[in-house]
Amino acid sequence: MGIEIRVEGLRKSFGRQVIWEDVTFTIPAGEISALLGPSGTGKSVFLKNLVGLLRPDRGHVYVGDQGDVPRLHEKQLYEMRRRFGVLFQDGALFGSMNLYDNIAFPLREHTRRSESQIRSIVLEKMEMVGLSGAEEKLPGEISGGMKKRAGLARALVLDPEIILADEPDSGLDPVRTAYLNQLFVDLNAELGATFLIVTHDIGTARVLPDNLGLLFRRGLVMFGPREMVLSSTHPAVNQFFNARRKGPIGMAEEKDQAQIAEEGTDPGVRPAPIQPQLMPSDGRPRPAMRRPGEWLRAHRVEAPPGSFIDDEGRDWRTDWDRLVEARQRPK
Ligand SMILES: Nc1ncnc2c1ncn2[C@@H]1O[C@H](COP(=O)(O)OP(=O)(O)OP(=O)(O)O)[C@@H](O)[C@H]1O
Ligand SMILES: [Mg+2]
Known about the structure:
Elements: E1 5-14, E2 17-27, E3 32-36, H1 43-50, E4 58-63, H2 74-81, E5 84-87, H3 99-110, H4 115-128, H5 144-156, E6 162-166, H6 174-191, E7 194-198, H7 202-207, E8 211-216, E9 219-225, H8 226-230, H9 235-241, E10 249-250, E11 253-254, H10 257-263, H11 294-298, H12 316-328
Parallel strand pairs: 3-7, 3-8, 5-6, 6-7
Antiparallel strand pairs: 1-2, 1-4, 8-9, 10-11
Bound molecules: adenosine-5'-triphosphate and magnesium ion.
């Protein structure tokens, strides 16, 4: 089962450059959360702080009951990292090892499994990410997308309780991205692990996660359930999740006040329709999925027109009970 990560008052700088400060939020156990933000806002740095590869200037990171990450000793960190599967932005594969050995590495490092057990796990994960047959390839001989998928296979071999993935979908073609998103949903349904995915893909962000967060202007602007974030009229949140040009976010991260004033207010500030969430392959809602429209109703927020209608014209708010009933029937 997944575990929660509680982040309190986190601040990180490099020299005089403050990356972000006062980041406080809880990544809920067993749910899929996504973190977005313009390039350079410190998303990758944030993930590295969660696993103790970078130390914050101040603040706390509590991973379940494992203690405060910035204050753990090497040995405790080593134990804690076992619970994580991490896919780094560049894949972080060992250049001199073939894919098989790269993916087997955490099993050899952290477990006492026999080589034949290792073999079956490695081949299973490689098949899962579409890399069967590439066991002997060196990282230097494969495409960027393949490196990503190899990194993901390696992140999964220890059946982690928390999966962190830094732009797993960058460098993948649209079809592979669709497969990858489905894989995340199915893994979450099966393992109940906690997911934190950094992505630039708005299409993914709008249908995959249970919770969304936005890093901007040296802070976490918003983090919460998908319906809260996708219906938000907060200027930066609205601009980002609707991929609009008008708004406080510019090419070089943020625009100056003059430029914002010149553009005027965006008449298109109405949030786009909230689509139904991506379902597991077996058609049963994940335990972490919330009833469509529930957050909006509880907070008296009107759903953006056209929300929760799928390609066949069905309204998921009224069909939800039928879907849940299907989940409760034995397989
Ligand atoms: N080890 C480091 N030393 C000094 N500065 C660093 C270090 N790592 C990151 N930075 C700086 O921190 C800032 C945030 O970097 P980070 O890689 O976290 O951005 P990001 O949000 O992941 O961007 P992208 O979307 O392009 O991946 C950048 O300005 C970067 O130059
Ligand atoms: Mg990054």
